[in-house]
Amino acid sequence: MYPYLFEIGPVTVASFGLMVATGFLVAMHILGRELKSSGIAEPTEVAGLVINTALIGGLLGSKGYFLFIEVNEPLFSEQWFELLSLKNLGYGLTWYGGFIVATTAVLWRIKRKQLPVLVIADCAVIALAIGYAIGRIGCQLAGDGDYGVPTDLPWGMAYPNGTVPTLEKVHPAPVYETLSHLFIFVLLKALSKITWIPGQLVAVYFVLAGVARFGVEIIRLNPRVVFGLSEAQIISVLLIIVGLIWGIMLFSQPKDNAIRVRAR
């Protein structure tokens, strides 16, 4: 594993940070293209608004959840500041904390700009899928403890030089997440070419992302909190339920209500 790639003077470039930055840049590019295809005015500016808001909200939400909920240390203790240092910036990020805060912040800014929320949201989940897939490569390179339980399968991996090292072969969970979200990205791209009611791609993404995360949590090391489920699995179930209900409501509408045809 390669937690740190190289140094530029006093700055050490971490693999996790580099891949997260790459994921956001690729997501911004994809989002700009999707917005343009959907007829959104000034797609590059809107893409920048969405991605930058999601970046800030995601980092604050994921790190904040970890610090306030999962770290059993006094407020603003020495460990707090250690976890907030640049060296540990990628450690202790919880996806559901980041997802909730980033989504809320993005929706708020879109509504303030009086932009079509659901049309932009459909475009955003396509970009989110590919950005997440790339970001998880950073977890794999860093060996930051996101791996799974021990396994004797041929693709099991050890992380002797990881941020959270292990000599035992385990499930490479970040690889599974990268592959699952690449699949989600390809599927959403294919569905986006169909005459579509705004909001349907979001419903599909909620279901697929929830299933993917629930599945990978089966082999992850995260503690179980209720009914043998981890926190991430509980939130995944809620995400799936919301996606199914929302999708059924939208898909049950008459076909004449399919008001958006994406230009290609």
Describe it.
- With 264 residues, the chain is mainly alpha-helical.
- The chain has one domain (4-194).
- Helix content is 60%, strand content 8%.
- The protein has a two-stranded antiparallel ribbon. Strands 3-4 form a two-stranded antiparallel ribbon. The chain has a two-stranded antiparallel sheet with strand order 5-6.
- Strand 5 and strand 6 (229-230) form a beta hairpin.
SSE order, one letter for each helix or strand: EEHHHHHEEHHEEH
| Oligomeric state of shown chains | single chain
Give the count of helical stretches: 8
- Coarse shape: globular
* Average residue-wise pLDDT: 83
Give descriptors for this structure.
two-stranded antiparallel ribbon; mainly alpha; 264 residues
Secondary-structure map with pairings?
Layout: E1 4-8, E2 11-14, H1 15-37, H2 43-70, H3 78-83, H4 95-112, H5 117-142, E3 157-159, E4 166-170, H6 173-191, H7 200-217, E5 224-226, E6 229-230, H8 231-251
Antiparallel strand pairs: 1-2, 3-4, 5-6
Give a quick rundown of the structure.
This protein is mainly α and 264 residues long. The chain is built from eight helices and six strands. Helix content is 60%, strand content 8%.
